[in-house]
Design a protein that fits this description.
Largest sheet: 7 strands, mixed
Helix content: 25-40%
Strand order of the largest sheet: 3-2-1-4-13-14-15
Structural class: alpha/beta
Bound molecules: N-(iminomethyl)-L-glutamic acid, fe (iii) ion
Shape: globular
Radius of gyration: 21 Å
Distance between the termini: 39 Å
Number of strands: 15
Strand content: 15-25%
C-alpha cells in the first residue's frame, strides 16, 4: 500500500469466506476509504493512522440478510394461535386472513408509522452483525401503499447503519379490489405500479409469489418480462407450498435467486445450476409453518447451486429477527454444515442480491462491512442458540457497537 491506511484491525482471526471459511489466524486487516485495503499476517501489517486491537476476536464479512419482509404493520399472533387450534396457513389465507390481514394494517400506516414498527426489528438484526438487508414490499398491493413501504425501506438505510436493497413484491397476493381478476391486477402492476416505483428509484429487484394462493406461472412470467424490460433483476418465492415450476421460470429470466424451495424438483435444480440462480433457504418459515417436506439440500449441493440462508422476517410465516438462529435451523433441520450456513449468510447471500462484487467476503477492494465475534471458531456462529457473540460491527470502515438503541 502506498499511503497509510485509515484504520488497522489487529490481533484478530479472519474468516474471509473465500474458499470455505478462508481462516487466517493472528491476522490484521487494514481499511482505507471505507474499503478493505490489505489483510494478512499480523506481523506484516502496514502503517495506519489508527489501530483497533480486536483482543483475539474473530472477524467475518458483515452478515447479509437477503430475504425479509421486515417493513410491515401489525402482527399475526392471532392466526398463529388459530393454526395451533387446527386451521391451516392456506385456509386462513383463503378466508381473507394471512397476507391480507397484514395488507389491511399496512395500508392504514403512513411511512413514519411503518418505520416506528420496523426499526426495532431491524435493530435486533443489526445487533447480530448484519450490515446488508433486503426489504420487500408486498403488503400494500396498490401503488401508494407499495410506495410507502419502499420509501420506509429506503429510510431504514438512512436512519440505521445498514445497507438496504429494496425489492418490489407487488405480486405477493391478489388485493380484494381485483377479486376474480388476477390478470387485470397483473396488467396494473406491469403497466403502472412497477414503472412508477422504478422511476422513483425505489426498486432494486422484483419478486413474486408463484403459488396456488399467489400468482400462476404465466402471470409471474408477465411480471418478470415487465421487470426485465426496465432492466431490473428478478427473484421468486418458488415452490414453497407446491411445485409450480417457479425455479425454472426465474432461472429462464436469469434470476438472482429462487427462495423457499421445499417442493423444488430436479428439473428446477438443473435450471438454477445452469443459470447461476442462488437457492435462498428460509428455515424460519419451514419451522413456523411446521412444514415436513424439506428443500432438496443434498441435490442442490450436488448440482453446485449456491445456497444462501435468510430470516424471511415476516408476521405470518417467520416472525424472526435473528439471522444466527436461521443459520442454526438450516444446520439442525436440514443438515447444512456450519460452513455452508455462514457462506449462506455472507458470500452467497451477497450473490443473491447481485452485490457479490462489493460485499460478502473479506477481500482487498471490497467494502469494509465487517463483524467482530467473541467465539472460539467460526462454527460457533451457527452452533449456539439464542446467544449473541457479536462484539462490534464495521459499516464502510466505521466501527460501531453491536447493540443499537432505537
Ligand atoms: O415468505 N410466501 C409468501 N410470503 C411470505 C409470507 C408472507 C405472510 O404470510 O405474510 C413468506 O413466507
Ligand atoms: Fe418471503
Amino acid at each position: 500500500m502506498s499511503e497509510a491506511a485509515d484504520l488497522l484491525f489487529t490481533n484478530v482471526h479472519l474468516a474471509t469466506m473465500v474458499d470455505g471459511y478462508g481462516e487466517l489466524r493472528d491476522a490484521a486487516l487494514a481499511v482505507k476509504d471505507g474499503r478493505i485495503a490489505w489483510l494478512g499476517p499480523r506481523g506484516d501489517a502496514p502503517a495506519a493512522l489508527a489501530e483497533h486491537d480486536c483482543g483475539g476476536a474473530w472477524m467475518t464479512p458483515g452478515l447479509v440478510d437477503c430475504h425479509t419482509h421486515i417493513v410491515h404493520a401489525g402482527n399475526r399472533s392471532n392466526e398463529w394461535e388459530a393454526r395451533l387450534n387446527g386451521a391451516s396457513y392456506e385456509d386462513i389465507a383463503r378466508q381473507g386472513g394471512g397476507i391480507m390481514s397484514t395488507v389491511r394494517a399496512t395500508r392504514e400506516a403512513d411511512v413514519e408509522a411503518l418505520l416506528a414498527q420496523s426499526l426495532p426489528r431491524v435493530a435486533r438484526l443489526l445487533s447480530e452483525g448484519v450490515t446488508t438487508l433486503e426489504i420487500k414490499s408486498g403488503y400494500g398491493l396498490e401503488l401508494d401503499a407499495e410506495a410507502r413501504m419502499l420509501r420506509a425501506a429506503r429510510l431504514v438505510g438512512e436512519r440505521l447503519p445498514v445497507r438496504v436493497a429494496t425489492t418490489f413484491l407487488g405480486a405477493h397476493a391478489l388485493p380484494p379490489e381485483f377479486a376474480g381478476r388476477a390478470d387485470d391486477y397483473v396488467d396494473e402492476l406491469c403497466a403502472r405500479m412497477l414503472p412508477q416505483l422504478a422511476q422513483e428509484g425505489l426498486v432494486d429487484a422484483v419478486d413474486a409469489f408463484c403459488e396456488r394462493i399467489g400468482f400462476s406461472n404465466a402471470q409471474t412470467a408477465r411480471v418478470f418480462e415487465a421487470a426485465r424490460a426496465l432492466g431490473l433483476p428478478v427473484k421468486l418465492h418458488a415452490e414453497q407450498l407446491s411445485d409450480q415450476q417457479g425455479a425454472e421460470l426465474v432461472a429462464r429470466h436469469g434470476g438472482l435467486s429462487a427462495d423457499h424451495l421445499e417442493y423444488l424438483s430436479q428439473a428446477g435444480i438443473d435450471a438454477m445450476a445452469r443459470a447461476g440462480t442462488v437457492a435462498v433457504l428460509l428455515p424460519g418459515a419451514y419451522y413456523f409453518l411446521r412444514e415436513t417436506v424439506q428443500p432438496p439440500i443434498a441435490a442442490l449441493r450436488e448440482a453446485g447451486v449456491a445456497m444462501a440462508v435468510a430470516t424471511d422476517c415476516n408476521p405470518g410465516t417467520s416472525p424472526m429477527t435473528s439471522l444466527l438462529l436461521a443459520m442454526n435451523m438450516a444446520c439442525t433441520l436440514w443438515r447444512l454444515t456450519p460452513r455452508e450456513a455462514l457462506a449462506g449468510a455472507t458470500s452467497h447471500a451477497a450473490r443473491a442480491l447481485g452485490l457479490h462484487a462489493d460485499i460478502g467476503t473479506l477481500e482487498v477492494g471490497k467494502r469494509a462491512d465487517l463483524a467482530l465475534w467473541d467465539i472460539a471458531r467460526p462454527a460457533d456462529l451457527a452452533y449456539a442458540m439464542g446467544s449473541n457473540p457479536c462484539r462490534g460491527v464495521v459499516n464502510g470502515g466505521v466501527l460501531r457497537q453491536a447493540h443499537i438503541a432505537v
